[in-house]
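Inputs:
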Amino acid sequence: MVMVPQADPADPPHDAQRLVREQSRARYPDRTGFIERDGVRAFYEVYGEGQPAILFASTWSIVHSRIWKAQIPYFARRHQVVTFDPRGNGSSDRPTGAGAYAEREMAADLLAVMDATNTDRAVIVSLSLGAQRALIVATEHPERVAGLVFLGPAVPLGEGLPGRDAPFDERLETDEGWAKYNRHFWRRDHRAFLEFFFAQCFTEPHSTKQIEDAVGWGLDSDPETLILTEDARALDEDAVRGLCGAIRCPTLVIQGDADAVTGPSRGIALADAIPNARLVTIAGGGHISNARDPVLVNLLIRDFVEDAIDQHGGSL
Amino acid sequence: MIAELIVADPREQTRARYPDVSGFVERDGVRVFYEVYGEGDRTVLLMPTWQIIHSRMWKAQIADMARRVRVITFDPRGNGRSDRPRDGAAYDRREFADDALAIMDRCGVDRTVVVSWCDEGQALILAGAHPERVAGLVLISGYPRAAAAARGVDYPFDEPLDTDEGWAKSNRYYWLRDWGGFVEFYFSQIFNEPHSTKPIEDALAWGLETDAETILLENSTVLVTARRHATPSGSTCCCETSWRSPWAPRHPTRR
């Protein structure tokens, strides 16, 4: 009789402490490392090989690069895949000033990771707030960006989610719903905020696993760090419109029409603002489609990359 | 802007693979629906369990196995696209085994590996009565009633109870009152791991393709008793390992 263990912990493949206690992976990185800018280190991973490279950008530091776990093994079969942890989560540093979390710093990290991994040019796939750093890199370094894919972009275009207007800084009398998006509540009950937030991210049925994963990644950071990211400067509408108008590379926007975090209209507005962008709306889709509908999203990204190669005569 | 809409969740589930051949066999006026996927010298017959659900319970096996072997599934009498005979004797487990044999004959299959889940009586009967036709047996699980017994709870099936709590739902009168309630409870016991909402939802939908009246016909046959006796007492049900959601795959790991 053979006993098959229910769940076997992964052989600790790396020195990083995080990997020792984390879930096993479908694929492990071929290379890992850190970039350092102004004394702040950011952790990156490289999987597979093949052009064009696909860089999965960091997003809001509430999660780290494992948010891309359903994309990495699939694309690493044919492409060099690069991921990195945002400042404030994962194996990256947690600088203690809000300025370190500004979108321009995140964009500079992204570029530094491309340099460190010899990634001359890549398709950049971004999620939510990651859209802003992707826009910065694509406009300021167009020669480095072969294409852009935005998933549920968090940009100040279109309409925000109705009812999501509780003030972040004030002490509130209620913790209900989006009132949890509040500095004081984060300090009081970080986990409860994460559970609320990711329940909003994953409104689709059968999302318990995705929510559990994301809450776990959220707990890899801490409320004070998360508050710094909120205090950091994100881009305003004029800045985003300016960046969008300058985009010339192939662009795909994937937006869930049931997105309960940004609302569906921001992604639609972004696709409208970027010349020749293609918009795909997922009926019933929530905010993090890459985690909840990975097959659909992976095939959309694959087709986008292949179309982009065809249009550029294979020279992508 | 070029816009298009993709519906990720169509009303009817799509399949990873569709059958190459499907049809009915008919025995004594009862039609049984079968499907054949893939081809090859080797055949795997995925046996139906008791008629609470039908052949889609194998959906996580079919596509993978059909890459290399011929895979046969069929809906049990009483669910799916098979008939719902009104005579309890038609649900004798020997009839299930004979349905399997008729389908093998129709498909020109001399010998097959038989895989059963949970309700293994029909597979054992087939292998025992026709050893030359069965190349191997994979028996997944035990019978959930044994799990109930292991919990020390064994409510009478045929008596009205003053409670619907827990395994008291495994009761003729409750079934007639709220068949869906039983099916949902039953599969929530079978899928007791975290993140099992999808397999529970699937199974509930399949369970609702039949009804309590049809299921209860079987209870008049002696073989239901035989079926219960066929399960070693105290064994627990791990049926779900065969068709859990691909969102939470469980890959056996070798040490």
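Residues 220-255 of chain B have pLDDT under 50 and may be disordered. Flag for discussion at group meeting.
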